[in-house]
Write a structure and sequence with these properties.
By secondary structure, the protein is mostly helical. The protein contains seven helices and two strands, in the order H-H-H-H-H-H-E-E-H.
């Protein structure tokens, strides 16, 4: 990491390995999100109401609630991208303090996270969840197409206790990859079988 006395443009950021302007294969991100979208629809559309009401494996949610939580991972990234755009232009200390404040509120976050996902299917309905998934993927891919490589290399600190896939420091490129990592983690906890 550069010292405070560095004369280089302070608006540019390093990734966690100290490298500038990391290359991002946008097509890989697109393919991952599209695969997740297709998988989500296959799981949701082939499941019966009884199957969606069945407990998942390793969580307190039903399969339907866990599917909403998987959708929520993409919805939250829309907001995370806004934060990276703001904090990625500020000195690192700002996002470090912000992440620390979020870390201190982790218990509250987990309660909201649980109850939000528990109530999500009732709020949107299962058909609405499918439509919302399509819309959020399309929105994220539109944003990705507009990002410059320098924007994708900006980053900020994150509260690692909020999610196992949050790293101490994440670039915008990392944030675009995060929701599909989250999706795949929870997909393995579903007790559904996608029918082709």
């Amino acid at each position: 990491m550069p010292s405070d006395s560095s004369k280089e443009d302070s608006s540019r950021r390093y990734d966690a390995c100290g490298k500038r302007g990391q290359h991002v294969d946008r097509q890989v991100v697109r393919d991952e999100m599209e695969q997740a979208r297709q998988t989500f629809h296959r799981l949701l559309d082939s499941a019966t109401v009884a199957e969606l009401s069945r407990p998942s494996n390793g969580t307190k949610w039903t399969n339907g609630q866990l599917l909403f939580h998987m959708l929520f991972g993409y919805l939250i990234v829309v907001r995370l991208l806004v934060l990276v755009r703001i904090f990625g232009r500020l000195p690192d200390g700002f996002s470090r303090v912000f992440a620390g404040a979020l870390e201190a509120s982790a218990k509250f976050f987990h309660v909201i996270n649980y109850f939000g996902s528990a109530g999500g299917p009732r709020l949107l309905g299962y058909a609405g969840m499918g439509r919302r998934f399509d819309r959020v993927i399309a929105k994220l891919l539109r944003h990705l197409d507009r990002e410059s490589d320098s924007e994708l290399s900006r980053g900020m600190h994150y509260p690692t206790s909020w999610d196992p896939y949050f790293k101490t420091y994440m670039t915008m490129a990392d944030v675009y990859r995060y929701p599909t990592q989250h999706f795949e983690h929870h997909r393995r906890q579903l007790t559904l079988v996608a029918r082709d």
